[in-house]
Amino acid sequence: MKIMVIDYREKDRLNRLLEKKFLIIEKVREDVWRILNEVRRRGDKALFKYTKRFDKFDLNCENLRVKDEEIENAYDKLDKSDVNALKHAKRNIERFHKEQFKRIERSWEIETEIGILGKMGKPIERIGVYSPKGIRGYPSTVLMNSIPARIAGVDEISLISSPEISESVLVAADLCGIDKIYRVGGAHGIGALAYGTETIEKVDKIVGPGNIYVTAAKIMVYGVVDIDMPAGPSEILIIADESANPRFIAADMLSQLEHDSKAQAILVTTSQEIVDETKREINAQIKSMRNYETIMKSIENSAIILAEDIEECIEFVNRYAPEHLEIMARNPKKLLREIRNAGSIFLGNYSPVPAGDYASGTNHVLPTSGTARFSSSLSVMDFLKFSDVQFITRDGLKRIKKTVERIANLEGFDAHSKAIEIRFSDSQT
After folding, report:
1. Per the CB 3.0–4.6 Å rule, which of 246, 336, 346, 365 could disulfide with 326?
2. Residue of 101, 133, 155, 181 whose CA lies nearest to 363
3. Angle at 145 between CA 221 and CA 176, to 5 degrees
4. Do residues 299 and 2 touch, judged by C-beta distance below 8 A?
5. Which helix (H) or strand (E) is 414 found in, with range?
């Protein structure tokens, strides 16, 4: 196995590397539209049809929603140590997001010369969580998406996943107090949450990652419902100076590359020795990986970049805008001040991405495909919406009367102007 090494001055090769990370849904758009339109027209029947086609599972009105006894049985089948691990992760994720919630100013008001102006925050009423099938299910996805929603005060959470839902996902859903669980996945599952069917109630927002069909469906139903973000392939970028540990670097790169064949891992370093040692470590460690075949495919998307100095490393990070950024350097906090674009940042030798993926408490639903340039990790804020509020006095309206009327007339909206004027037409002003 040979990972690509690029000198930072090779701009054409850098540009080609960057092009590999962008999410392109055009090739599935037509198929997804057809699925969504059929779900909107035929409801449950469309879900049964597509579940049979894609999952080879006979879905019907009786088994579409997971029953309470199935959840109880999941606890019996799952090892107690696994249940305790989920509970531990849940506590840490709750602690972090409760602190978030405390720091959000949900409602406020100010008194001005025209009256009282303010903002009022309220939770979204219903959300739908998508949990992908994966290799063995993703209970961490359930925790990361539902815990901040619960803390924000969402009234009802529904979960959808592939028909044969793993015990770990069922237990995680129960620990988080998810209200309804449905065994339906794919683009048709997204359509069910967006439009509603005879069995599945329409939600207001859909969160959770999925494959390109799921991602395309989420993008297409946006406007009917809100979504968290388009989720592209997983990615990690590591900045390393000569003090970094190549064994740790290699392990962390491989941990992200096992997600799927389109994942990407990038190391950018100022040290030729780190380049050479990391390549050796990757070759040594990859041999024992259970997901060897997936890693061998995704490593073709990946690279080690040799930079002249740390400033070039920072420049590349901000251009790449990684989902996960690890800084393995003598003074990572100093470099942190220069980072503008990154989804989640891990400082030092003992802050690997898997810690944040599962149990440190920060959220692992992160912007991918360069969208960290303008978006953030999932948070409690994503489950709140805010209304502007104003109570204007008569004298206050009089103070801005001429300004409103003139701007209304500038824009050609005569009725806007008259809505102000009429309030003073019968009085002596």
Report:
1. 346
2. 101
3. 130
4. no
5. helix 414-421
Question: Percentage of the chain with pLDDT > 70?
Answer: 99
Please tell me the distance from the alpha carbon of residue 173 to that of residue 83, in angstroms, as a whole number. Answer: 12
- 8 Å CB contact between 130 and 185: yes
- How much is the average pLDDT of 130-142? 92
3-class DSSP assignment, residue 94: helix
CA dihedral sign, ordered 34, 124, 211, 263:
positive
Residue 367: phi, psi to the nearest 5? -70, 135
Architecture of domain 4-23+232-361 in this structure: 3-Layer(aba) Sandwich (3.40)
What is residue 427's predicted lDDT score, i.e. its pLDDT? 56
The active-site residue out of 324, 326, 411, 416 is 324
Query: Which two structure tokens, joined as six digits, stand for 393?
Result: 């006095």
To which residue do tokens 């996943």 refer?
161
Residue carrying the six token digits 């959770």: 208
Q: Is the pTM of this model over 0.85?
A: yes
In tens, the pLDDT along 179-220 reads 999 999 999 999 999 999 999 999 999 999 999 999 999 999
Catalytic residue status for 324: yes
> Has 323 been annotated as catalytic?
yes
- Torsion on CA atoms 351, 356, 361, 362, rounded to nearest 10: 100
Is the separation of the CB atoms in 295 and 19 below 8 Å?
A: no
| Cα separation, 81 vs 355, whole angstroms | 18
Residues 6 or more apart whose CB falls under 8 angstroms from that of 2 comprise 279
CATH 3.40.50.1980 segments of the chain: 4-23+232-361, 26-106+121-227
pLDDT, mean over the chain? 95
pLDDT in tens, 325-383: 999 999 999 999 999 999 999 999 999 999 999 999 999 999 999 999 999 999 999 99
How far is 209 from 362, CA to CA, in rounded Å? 17
pLDDT computed for residue 277 by the predictor: 97
Find the catalytic residue in 258, 323, 326, 364.
Answer: 323
Q: What's the CATH code, domain 26-106+121-227? A: 3.40.50.1980
Helices (H), 184-339: 186-195, 212-221, 246-257, 272-285, 292-298, 310-320, 332-336
Is pLDDT above 70 for 428?
no
At residue 288, φ and ψ (nearest 5 deg) are -95, 5
